[in-house]
Amino acid sequence: MSKEYPILGSPLKVNGVTLKNRMITTSMSPGLGYVTPDNRPTQRLANYLEERAAGQTAMIIQTIVPWKRNELEASNPMIHALPSCYDETCIPDLKKYMVDPVHKHDGLICAQLYCVHDWKPSDELPESAYGPSDIAILKFMSGFKAMTIEQIHDFQKQYINGARVIKEAGFDAIEVMAGVGGIMSRFMAKATNNRTDEYGGSIENRARFACEVIAGVREALGPDFPIVVRWSPIDFIKSPAGEGLSMEEALQIAPMLEEAGADLHDLAVGWHETSEPLTTKVIEDCHWTWISQKIKTVAKKPVAQGYRNTDPTAMEQALQADKVDVIAGLRYSIADPDLPRKVMEDRTCDMRKCIVCCRCLDDVVSQGKPMNYCGVNPHLGAELDHEMYPKAEKKKRVMVVGSGPAGINAAVCAVERGHEVDLYEAGPRLGGCVKMSSIFSPYHERYLDYMNNLVKSHPEIKVHLKTPVDASVVKAAKPDAVIVAIGGDVMTLDVPGVDNANVLQSHDLLEMLNGNTPHTKSAFNNFMWWGATNVVKMHYTPSFARWATTAMNWPVSREVAIIGGGLPGCELGHLCMETGRRATIIEEKKKIGYDVGGSDRFGLINGFKKAENIEMHALTKVTEITDKGVKAVQTDKEGNQTEIFVPAKTVAITLGFKPNHALAESLKGICDEVYLVGDADEPHRIADATKAGYVAACAI
């Protein structure tokens, strides 16, 4: 029994099965590679599932489609590749690649039969969007077809047929998808249901479709087979036809679902069409458990809640407060397949927590790509085709230069594979740019702490701090392989005034954290940088730096011009917004936040638009920096140009990085194996660096 997480690590009976702890995954569709073009699960999916079952996940929920897709539909990148369960021919692959890998570790696997927006009524008809009516919440998601009574009954027959197939394949439970804007949830909401027959009007009629499906599954699968229902008590949508589902109505629906046969409520919040931020870092961990707390007042069955559950401490607190019975989520499991085991064993320091970067959501949901990247976990996609740390055929001396995500993942992977590893860092502490990004993105501090603990837990790695590396150092060390992970070169401006005393370069903070005092034209700033650098040499945490920056209004003043509207500039802009500073973001490209992930960008930019202390200027080129602010030329949609002036006491240049190939190029002829990874190779997001370092170490 866990001491730190006594409820989170405890078992719970759900009808005919017992969850070994209170952590289940929500459903997913990881895409091609995990599934074949003809809708069969692969060994990659089997490996993914087995990792999580071995990690003691109480129940893994996976999406399966109950109809057969044709070749055209299977090749459509925006139609998620899913395993099928349309007849008995699907059973051998479902068992071999999904059920058996989970049961091998005494885990439970639950099939969620897919029915979000799309449905395929027959082999002859195309897969397309259906619902109670043709009402669309968003214009680009139009094309919904109103289901006839006959089609409703056909859907139920198809669904129940799929349920029989998954039970025969050995699945332990079934999840009925009645949320997130899928077909059944569209029937529940007045906003998308204007029917006047027995499936429209009253709340009983609008919930009828979902209840009939659950009742049909119960009759087909028997009294002891667990039925989970995924539904959205709050959907944050409306249309001319009416409002979305209200909590008052949801409290009426919950007992109906149980009476129909539901054994576990798996609550989602919002629909895919919802504009309200649901899953991003602006929402605190376990925030949405207020919804499950409400449903628990009327539910007789256990209640799970998904979205924004990434911190086991917050999960335990929610359980202790009786806000929820089971923690549902996916990103915590993507980030660390062993998290439930670590919860049960009180291994808090070993937890690789999700940093809420939303890379997995951006790739899979927004772009229809396979799930290949996670900010903190490199073992996804093609890397799942081999074990996490495949043993090396020959032991080699490996030199890793740079200690950011790429460097540390490379060093740990290399030493786990059996190599002798030396890790070099020019500064006084590990972490690379994450040392700085953690100031502006507090969730990155989780990764910084984890990486430091990871290196400590591998004492075989010889760490060389305060040791810059050039070709002569490498030549003297005589390694068999070098992984260059030194980060990118900082991009700056070439305009008059760029060296003014009021200019803050993005790398100034990183230089300070690395023990080097930045120098400016201002005697005051030079004194402050000197003092800050010496303080940081003795004590540094991102939380402390965040507090100091806010409390002192230095090096960022109360009036800021931010040059560069990419991710770094937006992160600084968000900090300014939250701390009451007046900030103006200036960007040459068409969009502020052009490289911010799709999950984050809408909420971030919408927040900037609503904030009284933030202004944004896209299509704006800086021409000069003065001691009073920034001169620039702005171009409108018609191509007309206007000179503008942005007053500012601090001008922050946040243009990001460019490739940094110099060290790698200098090693040609010195070492036969040289790998250039992370931002040094090509600046991208944190997940790319995490993956690149690991992949390089696997290649040695």
UniProtKB/TrEMBL annotation:
Residues 397-669 form the FAD/NAD(P)-binding domain. Keywords: Flavoprotein, FMN, Iron, Iron-sulfur, Metal-binding, Oxidoreductase. InterPro entries: Aldolase_TIM, FAD/NAD-bd_sf, FAD/NAD-binding_dom, NADH:flavin_oxidoreductase, OxRdtase_FMN_N. It holds the Pfam family Pyr_redox_2. In the N-terminal section; belongs to the NADH:flavin oxidoreductase/NADH oxidase family. Residues 10-347 form the NADH:flavin oxidoreductase/NADH oxidase N-terminal domain. GO terms for molecular function: FMN binding; iron-sulfur cluster binding; metal ion binding; oxidoreductase activity. Its cofactor is FMN; [4Fe-4S] cluster. This is NADH:flavin oxidoreductase.
